[in-house]
Design a protein that fits this description.
Layout lengths: L35 H4 L5 E4 L2 H9 L7 H4 L11 H12 L8 E4 H6 L1 H12 L13 H11 L7 H4 L19 H34 L7
Parallel strand pairs: 1-2
Helix pairs in contact: 2-9, 4-9
Length: 219
């Protein structure tokens, strides 16, 4: 997650002296807490999602019953990572000799899983297999639970799923609601305070999402 390698606004970016190297080019300064020698070993893939869908879903993790698992009761907009993802994206995209990051929008992935994963595999030099779209066995689930045990409560829907099922590009949901309709829906489901928290966070992240979306891979 970009949030964990990009310092917050109020904190300076300081690498340990042992990892610092002089910038001998005209490149923009490295905005992360990782040295470029490590960054250059990765092919970054960014999965983005509309804030109007992502943040209400995340908010559930801070209220019962999921808050009993997450042990957290406060959604902090500064920790949502959209700002940091945009900063990291721009740095990687403009870096001389670096690998351009790949961007996938969750809506596109859910609308046409194979149509997104097949070209993604091609870009990564991997062989696509339809088995990538499903994880129905107990072994699959036990493996996933073992990896995400530390983050109990945050990934329950994914952990309890059995695969990616195309939802179709014509699906209509709350994303098409007006701002007022969204607020009314969140107020009904989470109360006035919850609605205000969600709306504030959605508004704070929307510009960064809209900036990244045009760079997404298409089926």
């Amino acid at each position: 997650m970009s949030y964990h390698i990009i310092p917050p606004i109020h904190s300076p970016n300081v690498l340990p002296p042992s990892l610092q190297t002089p910038n001998l080019s005209n490149e923009a300064p490295n905005p992360t807490l990782l040295p470029t020698s490590i960054i250059d070993t990765f092919q970054f893939i960014f999965l983005i999602r509309k804030p109007v869908a992502a943040i209400p879903s995340l908010y559930r993790c801070f209220i019962p019953p999921l808050s009993a698992l997450t042990a957290d009761t406060t959604l902090d907009p500064s920790e949502l990572g959209y700002r940091e993802l945009r900063i990291l994206f721009n740095y990687l995209r403009n870096r001389d000799g670096g690998r351009a990051p790949l961007v996938i929008d969750a809506d596109d992935l859910l609308a046409d899983p194979e149509g997104i994963l097949r070209p993604l595999c091609s870009k990564l030099g991997l062989s696509y297999s339809s088995s990538m779209l499903s994880w129905p066995t107990a072994e699959d689930h036990n493996f996933a639970f073992s990896l995400f045990e530390k983050y109990a409560g945050y990934h329950e829907d994914a952990l309890n799923s059995t695969g990616l099922v195309p939802k179709g590009k014509g699906v209509k949901d709350q994303l098409l609601l007006s701002r007022e309709e969204q607020n009314d829906q969140w107020n009904l489901k989470y109360g006035k305070e919850g609605m205000q928290v969600i709306r504030s966070a959605v508004d704070a992240c929307q510009d960064d999402y809209e900036y990244l979306r045009p760079f997404r891979m298409l089926a």
